[in-house]
User: What shape does this take?
Amino acid sequence: MAEPALKDTDMKDSGLFDIVLVVNGTSYALAVPARRLLSDCLRHDLRLTGTHVGCEHGVCGACTVLIDGVAVRSCLMLAVSADNSSITTVEGLAGRDGKLSPVQQAFADCHGLQCGFCTPGFLTTITAALAEDPDPTPEQAREIIGGNLCRCTGYQNIVQAVLRAAELITQTR
Amino acid sequence: MKPPTFGYSRPESVAQAVSLLAARGPDAKVLAGGQSLMPLLNLRLAAPGHLVDINRLAELAYVSVSGGQVTIGALARHNDVLRDPLAVAAQPLLGQALALVAHPVIRNRGTTVGSIVHADPAGEMTAVLALLEGSVRLVSVAGERLASAEDFFLGPLESDVRAGELATEVLLPELPSGAGCAFTEVSRRHGDYAVCGVAALVELGPQGEVSGARAAYLSVGPVPVVLDLTEACGGVSLVSLATAGTPDFAQAGRLAMARLQPGDDIHATAAYRRHLAGVLTERALAGAFAHARERAWLSLP
Ligand SMILES: Cc1cc2nc3c(=O)[nH]c(=O)nc-3n(C[C@H](O)[C@H](O)[C@H](O)COP(=O)(O)OP(=O)(O)OC[C@H]3O[C@@H](n4cnc5c(N)ncnc54)[C@H](O)[C@@H]3O)c2cc1C
Ligand code: FES
Ligand code: FES
Assistant: This one.
């Protein structure tokens, strides 16, 4: 079988890849090496340091972002794989006027954070989950956040915040 | 940590993908959901020379049910499979197992085929393939072949995917009527890899007796282990249930404990694992029996 033609930007043994990422509604053109993690691309190349990096092996959830609306671990994705996708980070959750999103408001209302290191990952994860199902049971609220670690709060207030955010979302409908 | 350097390509078709794999040789690795490979790269436990990213192979993003089989394409994410009502109805073990695989966010990205190819003896989907005697379709520039579950797992994190091959789909039989299944495990926290896990399949005969009982085990050996426990389930039937109240799978639990050879590691001692295997065998068989009974009633005219 003859090797089918592949564009230069789609195959390289070294060097940089030209990619376009739409992050929180703004389009960025970047040149990144294949090994650049999406988490590092956001933090270092785009200086969007709201996305936190805790473990770099998928266990803590701090780096969770939304790619085309789906929550994923940005430490387990290459920036080059995210080419042409639309990404929402914690910086993109509040309104343009700075008004907190329902999930952010619920964290403030329920004291859902202490040091705040884990918070960006919780906010993005919960935002995506409530977009799918805006009325979780307390048990489902726990399942939603089951993959995110927090060393401060003891989780109870975060579970409360999930339920409070659901309330806020259904109220505004 | 950060991954080492590697070349990268993102083919748009299976034909392109396999020719890239052929051209790059044994130093190339497929990148699917990355939920196992990326941690290995970040921890520098793997250093492939070239990654062939299959995330654009939209032609492999499918789950289908036909001809008594559930077929899962290589780009179907765990959550795509879990949320496919036809697939989980045709083979309920899929839904039971996938709910235990990691967390929802990991399942958004990780693929079911990738998890089988990854061949982690603690991974639920390896036990599902082994128990159901499914198969994996492997494609290369030289052609394609179907690997049976029995031959597919070679060792921990080692499956029979040869250099140049892409696993395009996994085939699993539907659950026959009159059969039931269950998956149960013990892990430190919900969503973690299991310290021990058991998937069970129970078939009922015409008198409601257990005519077949098999179980597959996680984390008790280098590859998923399947045991036929039918001989130890002789006393259990729908009729005995009416008098005894609960099915008694204790003998099957003891048989499993006698046959398995779990090892020690930092998570558990061999003795504790053997104990878990016994208890979980009873639970999984009881769950599968109850499931079979429920399905038998549902299918009555
Ligand atoms: C925090 C965390 C917890 C997890 N917990 C669990 C758990 O409890 N149970 C569980 O089973 N899994 C768990 N996983 C792993 C998860 O299920 C992965 O999705 C899965 O193991 C691998 O699938 P992938 O698509 O991500 O494959 P990748 O990571 O992309 O690839 C894994 C390996 O398979 C090869 N490969 C993948 N697809 C193909 C293909 N089509 N053809 C040829 N080779 C291929 C790759 O080259 C690589 O060697 C967890 C992961 C994380 C990060
Ligand atoms: S930094 Fe990505 S999951 Fe911990
Ligand atoms: S608030 Fe400190 S880690 Fe969660």
